[in-house]
Amino acid sequence: MREWDTRLVVGPNASLTPRQALWFMASVSLVAVVIAVAFAAQGLWPILPFAGLELGALGAALWVSLRRNRYRELVDFEGERLRLGFGWMERGAAAELDWPRAWTRVELVPGRTRNSPSQLWLRYAGQAVRLGRCLTDEERERLGRRLKELLPPVWKSTPVGEPEWSPERLTTGG
Amino acid sequence: MANAHAHDAHDHHDHHGPDKGIMRWIKTTNHKDLGTLYLCFAFTMFFIGGLMSLVIRAELFQPGLQFVDPEFFNSMTTMHALVMIFGGVMPAFTGLANWMVPMMIGAGDLALPRVNNWGFWILPFGFAMLLSTLFMPGGAPAGGWTMYPPLVLQTGNAFPMLIFAVHLLGISSITGAINVVVTILNMRAPGMTLLKMPLFVWTWLITAYLLIATMPVLAGAVTMLLTDKYFGTSFFTASGGGDPVLFQHIFWFFGHPEVYILILPAFGIVSTIIPTFARKPLFGYASMVYATASIGFLSFIVWAHHMFTVGMPLAAELFFMFSTMLIAVPTGVKVFNWVATMWRGSMSFETPMLFALGFVFLFTMGGFSGLMLAITPVDFQYHDTYFVVAHFHYVLVPGAVFSIIAAVYYWIPKWTGRMYNETLGKLHFWLSAIFINVTFFPQHFLGLAGMQRRVPDYNVMFTDFNQMSTIGAFGFFLAQFLFIGNMLACMFGKRDGKVPERVWEGAHGLEWTVASPAPYHTFEDPPLVGDNGEPVAAGKPAHGH
Questions:
Q1: In order of start, what are the domains of chain A with their CATH numbers?
Q2: Given CB atoms, is B293 within the 8 Å cutoff of chain A?
Q3: Of A46, A49, A58, Cβ closest to residue B178
Q4: Which residues, including other chains, have CB under 8 Å from residue B377's CB and lie 6 or more apart?
Q5: ipTM of the complex
Q6: Cβ contacts of residue B67 below 8 Å, gap of 6+?
Q7: What are phi and psi of B536, to 5 degrees?
Q8: Average per-residue pLDDT in chain B?
Q9: Looking at residues A10-26, what average pLDDT do you find?
Q10: What is the spatial distance between Cα B64 and Cα B460, in angstroms, rounded to a whole number?
């Protein structure tokens, strides 16, 4: 049973699947380990630890990238409530918030310098949450516009319109 | 929940824009800034390595000893190679990858920007360490860049500095390679499948694979040299039961893939430039990818052709001879495809195209002399002569270096928003092409006549060709000031007239959809790549500064 009227899902662009990463890692490891073991068999064992270190670094880089790929921000609108969830897919939300929809404000702060990324904030009663870290400026602006549509100020509050049943998804290419 | 708020509130002040002044360059994690740093570093090293080559050539202008003593001469040959390979060519290609790979695949930056920053800043420290040995008691390393024991173990105080510097340069290369691999695999724009990637991206992916596979071998090899000298081990010390020839095997097991690390990105650059100025798509894209991968694979099984003369079983000599010759097949596919791309194309000859054509012609000559060296009995005669010097310089200078120069001319309008001076560019090409042949072509004859490499004195019969070679080297070095001036004008000169997004009429690819100069953050909206590799939807490119 759906608990939300409108859901925004924010996640990074990713062209690497865990399966592809595994295959790539396996192929590099096979080559590097075969080479290192072959030389170790000739008595040149110091190549082995360097191969291990390097494969560890490659594995860590792939793991970090795959972990980032699973990052999601969920913004659920349900009647008068706004629910925010942050975390990694398949792990449940690392943090969740439940704010009154009518009192939540959207703020898009331009970058400090012309080349700094913008920041998108949701604020309520002295609390603030930053959204769209994995998005580009253009996407953050679009997300901010959509949030403003969905979060009208309290004095303009009208009954929430027809529920939108399909989740909206925003991903970044960069 | 409260923690999440606090965490977020702290992040309010973070940003990824450039700082002012020098701190921008020290702290930057931006791929374009780091690309610029890599390229500036590489050209500084080319200059230093070039000066060393002039010392060598000045000494060899006449027989006898003129300017430097033999020990310093040997230091120059050793340092020239280390500086040019690890300080010039490799960082230059990494700089080009930094600049272009994210733009070509529609990504905003490299996957690991902080690692990218560390990877670059290791380099100046590594080279400061290496170059400082020139001022040490006992002088700089003089046993050749291949560091063969037992000769290299006679190096004085410079020895540990050499080993540590090689480790640092290796770490830098590995961080760069891992970053490029992860970026290409994970950050391609929607629709950009592997077989739609530009050839430059493909060649870098395979290069990075080779780097990751072979760098531990180099790291292990130099560490064993260190322990042999200082910790009483006998990996390569015959008196302790070790085998010096074994070092040659592991060095070249790294060294031959390294040769392809130095040339595969060049193939990618030329495969990008030729279709642009022939105004035709690259002929045989898929075969180019497979040929590159084949060269990468073959590079692991040909190493011993560098050491035919150490005395190997006949079967091994035959194996390494034939496997080396086999490399001519995928390389031939590439050359054929470049020529077929130009066939009946609407060719024009701007400076990048001239350098790319120079590459195809002169690199192929280097390839042919390589085939001669692959023949074992012939190599027995040519080994350690100037024929080998001529061969690898034909591959690396009109090969790797020409491709780097071509790439800079090709992309600098995109980087700076200013067009270079075409007349100066063409003059630079012709002077470079002439002087490079004046420098290295006579060295074939010197080698065939028996002149040994790495020796500061020679028989008087070799004088004429050596004088030609020296004149060519000085001419080539001086001609590069045209390039430096042209590029500095692009970087700092007045901007008159707007450079369009698609600088070259026949250019294709995502990098030509963004403004010139390319904005600090490239893609504000992800491009969607169509069947032909061109953006078809969304993908609103960022505006310029």
A1: 6-10+71-154 (2.30.29), 18-68 (no CATH)
A2: no
A3: A58
A4: none
A5: 0.87
A6: B55, B58, B59
A7: -115, -20
A8: 91
A9: 92
A10: 9
